[in-house]
Amino acid sequence: MMFNFDAMLVTAGAATGMLVGLTGVGGGAVMTPLLMLVFGVAPTAAIGTDLWFAAITKLAATRAHQGHGLIDWQVVRRLWAGSLPASALTLAWITTAPIDAHTAGFLKAMIAVAVVVTALAMLFQKQLHALGRKFRLESGERFKSLQGPLTVLAGATLGVLVTLTSIGAGALGVVFLAYLYPLRLTPSRLVATDIVHAIPLAVFAGIGHLLIGNVDFGLLGNLLIGSIPGVMLGAVLSRRMPQIYLRGSLCAILLFTGFKLLRVAA
């Protein structure tokens, strides 16, 4: 199969990759709507291609998180216990559901909702973390008894969302963990644990979409040409740029994009 270089797709990949490098989130939430709204890619192809785009792009910038004992494997296993079965069930549903105008409209609406929820979760992450910390300190035994089941439930929620929309593994995963493990996970352990869960989930869901035929390799190749150097540059620049303004800008962009998608899907 012949590869056709597309400068606009490479530029979009580079910009999204830099955003991921700067903030650690936003790959799926930015790229999937961008592919649909700007490049006119069908929802199923945008989702399947973006799963691989997000997984490979994040792998290029997260090697540092794999070491130094930062990963909480018990938390990762709890998340996988929910996310991987939920992803498999969602893939089974996608396989049996006929792709028609109604299904495409449903996927667009789900993507729009996922983008808006991601933006709101990022916006209120500190408040949710404070709420979880308060619950943990005031009702310690009850909170700890609920941690395991709620983590599995959080994983299942992410499994469905990521498989159905390619969105949520990074930003929503961090928010869930910040609430559920407010004392146990320091910021660096939180990010590392979320990444270790998110990348295999994206690959698992991506393999399912690949088998279904929802991955456009030409599209993926162009995006990765831009995103891999973009995410590395963003990771370097992130140490020098104020995260509060970057995340605030990203939230605003996501909210605008989400509501735009809702109007298109309506």
Short description:
By secondary structure, the chain is mainly α. Helices cover 80% and strands 0% of the residues.
Write the layout of secondary structure elements.
Elements: H1 7-23, H2 27-37, H3 43-61, H4 73-96, H5 101-123, H6 125-138, H7 140-165, H8 171-180, H9 187-212, H10 217-237, H11 243-265
Helix pairs in contact: 1-2, 1-10, 2-3, 2-5, 2-11, 3-9, 3-10, 4-7, 4-9, 5-11, 6-7, 6-8, 7-8, 8-9
Question: Could you explain how this protein is built, in words?
Answer:
By secondary structure, this protein is mostly helical. It has one domain. 80% of the residues lie in helices and 0% in strands. It contains 11 helices and no strands. The model has no long low-confidence stretch (mean pLDDT 85).
The shape is globular
Which oligomeric form is depicted?
A: single chain
Strand element count: 0
DSSP strand (E) fraction?
under 5%
Q: What is the share of helical residues?
A: over 70%
Class of secondary structure makeup:
mainly alpha
* Low-pLDDT windows of residues: none
Distance between the termini: 37 Å
Strand/helix succession: HHHHHHHHHHH
Query: What is the count of DSSP helices, taking H or I runs of 4+ residues?
Result: 11
- Kindly state the mean pLDDT as a whole number? 85
- Give the total of domains: 1
Tell me about the largest β-sheet.
Answer: none
**Compute the gyration radius: what is it?**
18 Å
